[in-house]
Amino acid sequence: MEIVQTLAVILDSTIRLSIPLLCAALAGLWSERSGVVDIGLEGKMLIAAFASAVVAYHSGSAWAGLGAGMLAAIALSLVHGFAAITWRGNQIVSGVAINMLAVGLTAILGNAWYGQGGRTPNLEGSARFPELDLPLVGAIKGIPILGPIYDIAISGHTAPVYLAVLALVLTALTLKHTRFGLRLRAVGENPAAVDTAGVSVAGLRYAAVIICGALCGLGGTYLAVSQSAGFLPQMTAGKGFIALAAVIFANWRPWPALFACLLFGLLDAVAIRLQGVVLPGIGQVPVQAIQALPYVMTVVLLAGFIGRATPPKASGLPYVKER
Amino acid sequence: MSAAPIELPRWADTALVPLVSVAAALVVAGLVVLSIGESPLEATALLLKGSLGSLEGLGFTLYYTTNFIFTGLAVAVAFHAGLFNIGGEGQATIAGIFAALACLWLAPLPGILLVPLAILAAAAGGALWAFIPGYLQATRGSHVVITTIMFNFIAATLIVYLLVEVMGKAGSMQPETPDFPKQAVLTPIHELLGAFGLKLPSTPLNTSFLLALAALVAVWALIYRSRLGYAIRTVGANPRAAAYAGISPARITMVAMAISGALAGGLAVNEAMGVQHRLVLDFTAGYGFVGIAVALMGRGHPVGVGLAALLFGVLYQGGAELSFDKPTITRDMVVVIGGIVILFAGALDGLFRRLVASVLNLGRGG
Prior knowledge:
Distance between the termini of chain A: 66 Å
Shape of chain A: globular
Strand content of chain A: under 5%
Oligomer: heterodimer
Number of strands of chain B: 0
Radius of gyration of chain B: 21 Å
Strand content of chain B: under 5%
Shape of chain B: globular
């Protein structure tokens, strides 16, 4: 029983640590499936974390925070879209710019408004998302194995967690089974064909970029208003890039993205628990080695040593009509 | 990359477009200053006074400029080969580790041997950390951009591990190496000129500034006056044509990345050997990313890179002084300005060319 309890707790923290990754990975997936490469996920999550914490603090409503977080991230997304789609600029350069802008702006504004070294004031009460109990927790709790897992790991998360799971299901269904999804995937593979069919390439790409912003907004809000009680400078700490790694790992597909995020979340959860623990036969594992694992794995995967990563064909290429 | 290039006179292309994007970036920064209730004009005056208004300020400005020359050149060399190296931070980190190992292991050597060896070690470390992504792109097809991002993070975790567990100073709670031997320390400029009877205030500006100036000249000679530079520019302009002309794009990719990484290593030379005299955590402090702005603004030309590095040196030092007088305006403003310069000069190039063209009345209507 003890072991089930421990596993349930690890699963619980894995889910908590995976959610921001999942949001950003889905965001990157939408954008890149439409052919717009996005290395600005990190910056968009950061600006969303800041905006959501500020609005949640002043309005006392976590939901208002979520709205603000999404709007802020969508605004940055549109900047990226304007550069990448309308002006056919270099998408990587634009992504770098967005990351820098977000780091600088959140630090300056946070410091100027609150004077706490860039932090926002602590969020309390309704300014944070409460933990929700799923139905039947009381009834299922007693069942061995299933009970503790349902009670500890599955139930008791905040609304953004369940929204992220919903976003995953909707992403998978939309991309695979709707006309919009088909066209969006097509525009990432062969924009000329979509254009010939009389569908707007720019329109589809802007739609993807806006959805990308909204999802980054959800992820950033989760960090500031649910996982922590407020914004901390640079609180995304590379999560946007791990999410990018997850997208590559998942070969730009939604369900594998979930598993990649859960894997990276698990590594994170385990790294915290393994701090200072001596494993039999291996000795003490440096925490940093585990932390670096997602990045190392991505490099190895991209180099084609394990499997192959195949991005959408037109990704990163601006579309030029009539050439 | 841009679709229908707008023809501009050369002077407008090389000077006016970057200047307009910098001006626009400064306007946006001014708006941010306004939005937090400060006066942009007063801020600008304080910034200029703090960076150029005194010999001490100037010393600090040139010390920051040194960092930006190295990271800007690193990005610029890769640009010429059509590569986007955003791994300057990671490359400088590894360069710092190599320099520290050299300084600590070879401590008995006299300075005249130790200093060049440590600088070479730094360059080798940076080159290695950039060569691997270059190699992986050239031979395995993994994109340099993603690999260098990942390598930044791997380097960041590696340095934490090394400073905490392996190379750390015994008994110190700070993640840092022991102090380098005295003869490994680069001479501060005020001491160097003091020997000639010139009295200067003490600043972190050291001889690596001269190294940076030499790097500017060397990169100019490499890119515009050498066979290798010609090959690099040809691959950057058109890899297929280069291959047809008997230049191997794969080889050039690896060589250009290695040179780029070695240049990024200069950041570690200035910071670790010139200023800190030991290896500390996070010494790269985002200089690698600002280097992208410097390279874009300088249009990849060493003269432009030098000027852009000076501008960012002024912003950095002036920003530090400014935040001292006006605590609400933190140094992060430089990061914002850097971000906007990258956005305008790099990604929104087309828009700015169009604007400049219409101002010059040369617009042909897209």
